Amino acid sequence: MGDILSQSEIDAMLSGLSAAPAAAPAAAPTTAYRPFAPMAVSPTANKKVNLYDFTRPDRISKDQISTLRNLHEGYARLLTTTLTSLLRTVVDISLQNVEQLTYGEVIKSISTPSCIYVFQMEPLESSAIFDVSPSLIFIMLDRLFGGQGRSIDSTNREMTDIEKTVIYKIIERSLADLKVVWENIGIFSPKIENYEINPQFVQIAPPGDTVVLVTLEVRTRTGSGLMSLCFPFVLLESIIDKLSGESWISAQKTTTQETRRMVERELSTTNAMLRAEIGATQLSVKDFLQLSVGDVMVLDKLAQSDLTMYIEDRPKFLGKPGVIGRSKSFQITGIIDREVGDDD
Fold this sequence. Notes:
Elements: H1 7-19, H2 62-87, E1 92-102, H3 103-109, E2 115-122, E3 127-132, H4 134-144, H5 161-182, E4 189-196, E5 210-219, E6 224-232, H6 233-236, H7 245-252, H8 257-267, E7 274-277, H9 285-289, E8 307-311, E9 314-324, E10 327-335
Antiparallel strand pairs: 1-5, 2-3, 2-4, 3-6, 5-6, 7-8, 8-9, 9-10
């Protein structure tokens, strides 16, 4: 057994231990940690951190929002032509914004009373909103009823039944233009489902659901107002893949059967000037001035030759003139084929 330490020796040893620095354990050499030295720096130290709000998840990508923006810029141009024709005054419509919000935020942003039309995009599920500011509604009504299209202080007045019928036709025509623009994505049939003046009574989605709000500014010579389209994500979910830039550009290169039928339907009610040309000849100015009743001119066609039928100064048909009852007629015997780009 070794010597027993005295109390003074024990105190001296404890004081020496407390003053000495702590040493690393001998069983853990520093060379063992050298391979892991580069991992001491965080890989995200130099990267930009983006904030993410879990209460407002972005369910639609920026590329898809960009496609929707391009889509409705075309809609603004088409609707400009439509409203200019219907109101018989210059109308300028521009796309203000396409943003991703929650449905609760959209409802809070709509004033009361307002003019809210709930419509469906068949065959898509769910409904969408077409909202028009009251100031713009009464500008259009004043113009349609023969006024100058001036804005009046009618923010607290509801539309009469006659006014509702007139505006209903305007909204129907606006949705028809929307159908034309959306044909780059698919064939849809917008149909008005309901009309409301209080946004609290319009429930097309839960308050926390994601929606896309498209805002358009409508300007006339006498005033301006806003139109907005609200599409819930449930409605867009089935076509979300077609909203990518590549899919949308490729879709624009094809013409759907619905587009062809729509063009044919619009052209079927268009008036065109038709005229049949018996023949032609050349006269000097001197001979022309000497023409009188009973003179005979020699034309460049025989009496039995087919005449040329012109549609808006463009040769289209060959045929022979005739009479049916007391009306003049033209029997088509042939069609003049024209090459693309031939303007003669």
